[in-house]
Design brief:
- By secondary structure, the protein is mainly alpha-helical.
- It has two domains: 216 residues, Rossmann fold, CATH 3.40.50.620; 82 residues, Tyrosyl-Transfer RNA Synthetase, CATH 1.10.240.
- Strands 1-2-3 form a three-stranded parallel β-sheet.
- Strand 4, helix 9 and strand 5 form a beta-alpha-beta unit.
- Helix 3 crosses helix 13 and helix 4 packs across helix 8.
- The relative contact order is 0.14.
């Protein structure tokens, strides 16, 4: 398969703070594993991040940090196009056009909105309109596949609905139907409290944690004192070890929760240490990372300009 015939993979992560091990196993690892197979475009969702991060210095630093994180986990900048969402303002233009063919009741079905509403949060328009910006992210790059967790599948369904509606309303075939890429074994990674791992739940283990951080967080994993096997510990542990090894280990240490937590901490540290060392090395030259983002945006701008010319012509702009 030649470079030009590769299908397009697109995905992104918000720049809202340090990534955690669920970000890695649920998304970043897939990006690395698939980088030879696809024309991968991986973005830093800084515009999406504005729904929650509204501090200039914090957002700017988070964005740079995430670019460094992408490189540290093994994304090859010669194979993968890593870019900032905000460097392509065409995506917000496309999102506005999608807004104009999308109804409020339709967006009210979005999980992100319903979850915020259920928690009585004050919902900004950006959060409500989040799925349209995501649809624009996906469709403007003519994406073929989008790695998502099971809990994020709805976002891709919305993008597909939007592509179909736009093509139908404007009698065109500009947008293709992207497909989800879901790894079932890590679709939802548990946190230290047994819920889905999330920064918003404060139940996560940061990907580049120090050894001491790992030990402290692992020891705080909630366990069921009535069970022989600490399920929450096991469910995190199986990210780092195969189940045959773990079944033997957990049988040998049945009821010995501290020993099992020690084993988990040891395995997490062994996994994280080389990533952390690589990250520290890359972080020594932040200007090189910024230059990479700038150059990639220039390259992609040619592609999105071409797509937007078709869109503008289709809608009569």
């Amino acid at each position: 398969m030649t470079e030009t015939s590769k299908k397009v993979l697109l995905s992104g992560i918000q720049s809202t703070g340090r990534p955690h091990i669920a970000n890695y196993f649920g998304a970043m690892k897939q990006y690395v594993d698939l980088q030879d197979q696809y024309d991968s475009k991986i973005f830093i969702a800084d515009l999406h991040s504005l729904t929650t991060v509204q501090n200039k210095e914090e957002l700017s630093q988070n964005t740079l940090d995430l670019a460094i994180d992408y490189l540290a986990v093994g994304l090859d900048p010669k194979k993968v196009t890593i870019f900032k969402q905000s460097d392509l303002p065409e995506v917000t233009e496309l999102a506005w056009i999608f807004n104009c063919i999308t109804t409020v009741p339709y967006l009210m079905r979005a999980h992100s909105f319903k979850d915020a509403e259920a928690k009585n949060k004050e919902i900004n328009v950006g959060l409500f309109d989040y799925p349209m910006l995501m649809a624009a992210d996906i469709l403007i790059h003519n994406s073929d596949i989008v790695p998502v967790g099971k809990d994020q599948k709805q976002h891709l369904e919305i993008a597909r609905d939007t592509a179909e509606k736009f093509n139908r309303v404007f009698n065109t075939d500009i947008f293709k139907m992207p497909e989800p890429y879901i790894v079932d074994s890590v679709a939802i990674v548990p946190g230290i409290d047994g819920q889905k791992m999330s920064k918003s739940y404060n139940n996560h283990i940061p990907l580049f944690s120090t050894d001491e951080e790992v030990k402290k967080l692992v020891m705080s994993i909630v366990t069921d004192s009535g069970a022989g096997i600490p399920v929450n510990v096991y469910n995190i542990h199986k990210l780092f070890r195969d189940e045959k090894y773990l079944d033997k280990l957990y049988k040998e240490h049945e009821g010995k929760y501290k020993a099992l937590k020690d084993a988990l901490a040891e395995d997490i540290i062994a996994f994280i240490s080389p990533l952390r060392a690589r990250r520290e090395e890359i972080a020594k030259d932040p200007e090189a990372v910024r230059e990479m983002l700038k150059n990639n945006a220039k390259k992609l701008k040619l592609e999105v300009d071409e797509m937007m010319q078709k869109v503008r012509e289709a809608v009569g702009l």
